[in-house]
């Protein structure tokens, strides 16, 4: 299997130079696990990954190949085994894949981090609660992607700031943490993008939105990653761009506190 030279450069050069740990993501599995554009579906909106055993076997092969290739690299943290499975993806096939991929990787003596995601619409404390727990399983993290854009198009700014983020989402995390799972929680994606309630031109409101989110993200026991590092056209502020956020001094202080 050929590996893009960029991945080698990232893990073996740039990450070492800038002291960054790299978690590789199986963002688009064969057949597509979500039907979304970023999972490379053959038919837009259709997920066929779990319909055919060869798709699952191929994904195990890829995960193990990458884990084996970078096993001894200092900057290699691990692998997100499947990004945002949703649509018609079969949950039983998904959890069976997680277990098979885990054993395939661990059988070579590789104890890298492996993150597992519930179905995207099941990011709840009860999802995967007792799944792949220690001590039988090691270095398994649960991954959520909390965004406050999709599904919140009709929410008011005050509702998001006073209820949804500080109360509803904090309660979800409080419930998860109260379960004393051996799996650490990792917020693998989040951003300051929103459905139009907060604009950077309104500094006070936007910074309250940023502060409320960061307070939640910082409760993740395995930390968080921003989506994404940069986007085209982020010379002006863009909530999808971490680079853009870090160039904004008030936001940089909030995010990096």
Could you describe the largest sheet, including whether it forms a barrel? 5 strands, parallel
Rg result: 19 Å
Strand tally is 5
The gross shape turns out to be globular
**Amino- and carboxy-terminal Cα gap:** 42 Å
User: Secondary-structure element order, as H and E?
Assistant: HEHEHEEHEHHH
On the 0 to 100 scale, the average pLDDT is 96
Strand order of the biggest β-sheet: 1-2-3-4-5
Strand content: 5-15%
Query: Could you name the ranges where pLDDT drops below 50 across 5 or more consecutive residues?
Result: none
| Number of helices in the DSSP assignment | 7
Query: Helical percent range?
Result: 25-40%
Class based on secondary structure composition and strand pairing = alpha/beta
Domain Glycoside hydrolase family: 13-230
GO molecular function: glucan exo-1,3-beta-glucosidase activity
InterPro entries: GH, Glyco_hydro_5, Glyco_hydro_5_CS, Glycosyl_hydrolase_5
Protein name: glucan 1,3-beta-glucosidase
Folded structure, characterized:
With 257 residues, this protein is of the alpha/beta class. Helices cover 38% and strands 9% of the residues. It has a five-stranded parallel beta sheet with strand order 1-2-3-4-5. Helix 4 runs parallel beside helix 5 and helix 5 (203-217) packs parallel to helix 7. The model has no long low-confidence stretch (mean pLDDT 96).
């Amino acid at each position: 299997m050929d590996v893009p030279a960029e991945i080698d450069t990232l893990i073996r050069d740039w990450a070492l130079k800038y002291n960054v740990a790299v978690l590789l993501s199986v963002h688009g599995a064969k057949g597509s696990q979500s039907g979304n554009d970023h999972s490379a579906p053959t038919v837009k909106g259709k997920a066929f990954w779990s319909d055919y055993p060869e798709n699952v076997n191929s994904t195990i092969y890829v995960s193990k190949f990458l884990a084996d290739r970078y096993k001894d690299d200092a900057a290699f943290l691990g692998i997100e085994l499947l990004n945002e499975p949703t649509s018609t993806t079969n949950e039983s096939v998904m959890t069976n894949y997680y277990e098979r991929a885990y054993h395939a990787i661990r059988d070579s003596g590789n104890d890298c981090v492996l993150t597992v995601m519930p179905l995207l619409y099941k990011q709840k404390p009860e999802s995967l609660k007792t799944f792949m727990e220690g001590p039988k399983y090691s270095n398994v993290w649960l991954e959520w992607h909390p965004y406050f854009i999709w599904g919140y198009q009709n929410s008011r700014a005050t509702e998001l700031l006073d209820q949804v983020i500080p109360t509803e989402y904090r309660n979800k995390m409080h419930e998860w943490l109260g379960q004393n799972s051996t799996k650490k929680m990792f917020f693998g994606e989040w951003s300051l993008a929103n459905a139009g309630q907060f604009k950077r031109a309104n500094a006070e409101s936007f910074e309250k939105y940023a502060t409320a989110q960061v307070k939640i993200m910082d409760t993740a026991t395995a930390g968080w990653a921003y989506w994404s590092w940069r986007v085209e056209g982020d010379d002006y502020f863009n909530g999808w761009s971490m680079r853009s956020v870090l160039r904004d001094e008030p936001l940089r202080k909030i995010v990096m506190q």
